[in-house]
Here is the input.
Amino acid sequence: MRILSGIQPSGKLHIGNYFGMMKPAIELQDQGEAYLFIANYHAMTTVQSADVLRSMTANVALDFLACGIDPEKTAFYRQSDVPEVHELAWLLSTLTPMGLLERCHSYKDKVAKGIAASHGLFAYPVLMAADILAVNSNVVPVGRDQKQHVEVTRDLAIRFNNAFGKVFTIPEPSIRGDVAVVPGVDGQKMSKSYDNTIEIFQEGKPLKKRVMKILTDSKELEDPKDPDTCNVFALYKLLSAEEEQAELAGRYRAGGMGYGHAKTALLEKINEHFAPMREKRAELAADMDYVNDVLCNGAKKASALARKTLQKARQAVGLE
Ligand code: ADP
Ligand code: TRP
Here is the structure.
């Protein structure tokens, strides 16, 4: 089984990214041949500063390695080190109906948020399809918001195979049901574009401030509370064992516990879970040559596969 996922280096990674995409990708690296890349071409649809793009790319590399991506198991690379995906994207784009892209929520959402409606933003899912199909991935672990893009990929692969003969594997999205959407501090989907994130590598006072800001209802200290509708509890659940969840849920229901207590319990869990990763990140940051070597080696492996696929596709369409 081949597994591939990617993430845009367009902001500081947060707990939503971690549970929705990073953790599943890290767990899947033991279950097949894993590929993971930093989607810096895609990020150009929203990041238009060379310095910012460069530093965010380096940060995402550090974040993933610190969180548990093992370069021995996963080919970890920068998208731009596998430029074959662009030629593949062109071949696919000639078969892509405009209507298919017009229906993509992510494009509409981003334009509604004020991001420039560039051709790159519109064609984004075609490049994403090329990323996936270039390595003939079977499984694509992503958060729920990316499911539609994997469906577009499947549609394009089927169209291409029907038109030109079987070149591509049809991929399946892998979405973790239990953590489909991680809520942010305001209760909406946690997202860097909503300024409601809890960053993985934030520490100390700023982290505490963020956790204390999580939106709750206005029940009094002595009132019984409902854990199932509480944003603090939703986050606590991601980080704790079942018995701990049952214990805290009991205290919610019994009344006499304020939200401040639940927030403190959550903060402890965040610190406990991410402390070893923070340490590892600091070590890695002091050795960027190693990080670059990892990315270059990953790119070699992905490029070799992409070249093979591209060769087949070029032959199939009559370019060779
Ligand atoms: P953001 O919404 O912060 O811009 P991205 O769109 O870059 O995040 O998402 C990167 C990956 O993390 C995707 O696979 C996405 O589905 C996942 N992801 C992002 N936010 C969440 C969330 N709140 N809950 C679950 N998964 C998420
Ligand atoms: N669009 C994805 C995101 O924003 C990133 C991405 C680009 C990706 N290419 C991909 C994810 C291929 C999985 C497979 O999160």
